[in-house]
Amino acid sequence: MTASTTYRQLKANPYRPWPARITSIVDLTEKEKLIEMRLIDEAAREAFSFDAGQFVEVSLFGVGEAPISISSAPSKQGFIELCVRRAGDVTSALHQKQCGDIIGIRGPFGRGFPFPEMKGHDVLLVAGGLGIAPLKSLINHIHDDRHDFGNVTILYGAKNPSEILFRQQFDMWKHREDFELIMTVDQPDETWDDEVGLVTKLFDRIDVDPARTYGAICGPPVMYRYVIDEMRKKEMDADRIYVSFERRMKCGIGKCGHCGVGHQYACIDGPVFNYWEAMNLQEAI
Amino acid sequence: MFFRVMDKARIADLVRGLSTEYEVIGPVAKGERFTFSVIEDPADLRLDFDTTILPPKKFFFPPEERMMRFRVADNEVVDDEAFASPRVLFGLHPCDINALLLMDNVFLGEFEDPYYKAYRDATLLVGVSCSPRETCFCNAWDTDEVHWGFDIFLTDLGDRYFVSVRSVMGAELLDRHVETSPITAEDTAEFQAVVREFKRAFPAKLDTSQLPLLLDAKFDDPVWDELGERCLSCGACSMVCPTCYCFDVRDDLDPDQRSGERKRVWDSCQFSEFSAVAHGQTFRESRASRVKYRYYHKQWGYLSKFERVLCVGCGRCTHACLADISPREVVTALVEGSEAR
Ligand SMILES: Cc1cc2nc3c(=O)[nH]c(=O)nc-3n(C[C@H](O)[C@H](O)[C@H](O)COP(=O)(O)OP(=O)(O)OC[C@H]3O[C@@H](n4cnc5c(N)ncnc54)[C@H](O)[C@@H]3O)c2cc1C
Ligand code: SF4
Ligand code: SF4
Ligand code: FES
User: Fold this and answer.
1) Taking a contact as any Cβ pair under 8 Å apart, which residues of chain A between 181 and 220 contact chain B?
2) A103 and A179 share a domain?
3) How far does CA A155 lie from the centroid of its chain?
4) Residue B245 located in a structural domain
5) Least enclosed by CB within 10 Å: which of A84, A172, B78, B313?
C-alpha cells in the first residue's frame, strides 16, 4: 500500500478495495486454486473479522470484481483463504496471480451461518462440488471449538474423484474421528472405492436426531430441493436448516440490485438463509 | 417550518440571486416536453411543466459515473474522491422529492455511498406544486404530499407562491435574494383550497388493497405471462424511473493499459443478463419473470425493508413504455383481477 492510503480512507468508501498480498497458492484441481492472502494495512487487518458463510468481493483493477466465499476459519486471524474456481474474467485473472502479488478485497459481506446458535448441537453439513468452500470455513470453525459440538457429519458429493476438494484435510479429520465424512461421486474411476451417486443417497447411511441437529447446505442450485427433502424426511426443523445462495453480485452492499432473491438481497440479507426464510423467498429454491 | 408568501414575478429575482452562489438547475422546455437543465436565463425556467423525461436522479446518481481511478500494476486506487459542486435543483414536484427520500434509504443507509452522498450534500432542493396528469397516481402511495426533504417549497396560489421553508439554508437564501412577506390567514385558507382542488383533480384513485400480499398470492397469475409477452425488455421503464437505482460496475482501461477507471452505469432488472451467474445460469430467464420482478421488488421487496413502496406514481414509466405497460394497469390487474382492466 502506498503511504498515502490510510485506514480511514479505506473505511470511508465501501467500494474501495483493500490491498491484500497473496501469501500462498495451492492448486487443488485443474479448475480450483486455494489462494491465501493477507491485508496489507495493519489496522485493516485487525478490523477484519468474519463469520463462516460470509464472502468478500475480490477486486482486480482492469478486470472487475467477483464475490467469493471465505473458506478459512474466522479464528485464523489476519489471513483470508479463498477457494477459487476458474469461471470467467475475474476468476481466470486471479488464477494467473503469483505469490506476492497484490489484489483487492472488499468485505466481509453478508450474513453467515449462525455459529453461536449451532453450538451445543449436532451438525449435518451437505456440500456439492464447490459448495464445500464456504462450508469448509464452518467446518474449520467447528473444529476449533470441537468440544462444544455433538456429532458432526459431512456429506460431500463431487462429479468425479479428481474434483474432490480438500481431500487430504478431510482424510486427516476423518482419521481423528472428529467428523463423520461420507463422500460420493457421480462418475467413479478405478481408484474410487467409496459411494457412487447423488449426495442425497448418503442420507440412508446416517442417523439424525432432529431435536438436536442443525443442517447446512451449499452446492449447485439444483441440489437444494433434494437435500432439503431428505432433511425434512429426517424431521429436521425448517428454521434449523441453512442454505447459501449464489446470485450475481456487483456491489455486495445492497445497492446495485443484481443479487435480488425473492424480496431480499442475497448480499446483505444472505447469502445464508434458513429454510423457513428461503421458503418465503420466491424463486429461491 | 415557517412560511412566507412571494409574488410570482419575483421568481426571477430568486433564481438570479441563487445563480450568484450556485449552479441552478430546473425544468426547461425541450420540444413538447421538459427536462431538468442548467438555467442560464431565469426566463427559461418553466415551473408550469407537467413532468420531465428523466427524473432528477441523474444529478445524484448519473447514468455513468467514475467511482475511482486505478493503477493496474499494483492494483492500487489512485483517486476515489467524490466531488460535487454546490447547486440548487429548482422546481421538483412532490413525487420527485419523495423519490429522493426513497433513494436515500438505499444510498445513505448502511454502507453509505460516498458518491451519492457528495451530490446530496451539495444540492439544495426547491419544490413546486403541480397538477396531476392522467398518468399520475402519487396519491395511491401518499407521495402527492411532501413534508420534509426540501429546503423551500413553493405552492402556486395563482398570482403568488405560498412558500414553505424547511431548512436554515432555505431561510437564509430566501432572505438574501428575494422579497417576501409574512403569510396571512387568507393565504393559508387559499393554500388549503389549492391543495383540496389538487386532490380532487386526480383520476380515480388506484386501489392498492393488500398489494404486497397479493404479489405473493398471485405469483403464478397468468397476468404476468401476458405482460411478459408484450414487454420488449428495453429497460426504458428503469431508466426514466426516479426510484430505480440498480447499476452495473465496469473497469475501463486507458489506452496505455496501465491505468483506468472503475465506473458504474445504470442497469435494469429487465435485461436478461442482469441476474446471470457463472455456469450460464440466469435466475430470471423469461420476460414474464422480469416484469414481475420489477413490481415484486418495488411493491414488496423494498417495502419489506423500508416500509414504503419503491414507486412515487410519477407515471414516467407509463409514458416511456412502447408496450403500454403501466403500474396502474399492473396493480389493477392484480388487485381487481384481469377482467377488471
Ligand atoms: C456469495 C457467493 C459466494 C461465492 N463463492 C465462491 C467461491 O467460494 N469460489 C468460487 O470459485 N466462486 C464463488 N462464487 C461464484 C463466483 O462469484 C463467480 O464464479 C464469479 O463471479 C465469476 O466471475 P468471473 O468474472 O470470473 O466470471 P464472468 O466473466 O463474470 O462470467 C462467468 C460466466 O458467468 C456468466 N455471465 C457473467 N456475466 C454475464 C453476463 N453479463 N451475461 C450473461 N452471462 C454472464 C457466463 O456464463 C460466464 O461465462 C460465489 C458467488 C457468490 C454470489
Ligand atoms: S415505477 Fe413508474 S410511476 Fe413509479 S416511480 Fe417509477 S417511473 Fe414513476
Ligand atoms: S419500458 Fe415497457 S417494454 Fe420496456 S422493459 Fe419496461 S415494461 Fe418492458
Ligand atoms: S450485490 Fe449489489 S445489491 Fe446485492
Assistant:
1) 220
2) no
3) 15
4) yes
5) A172
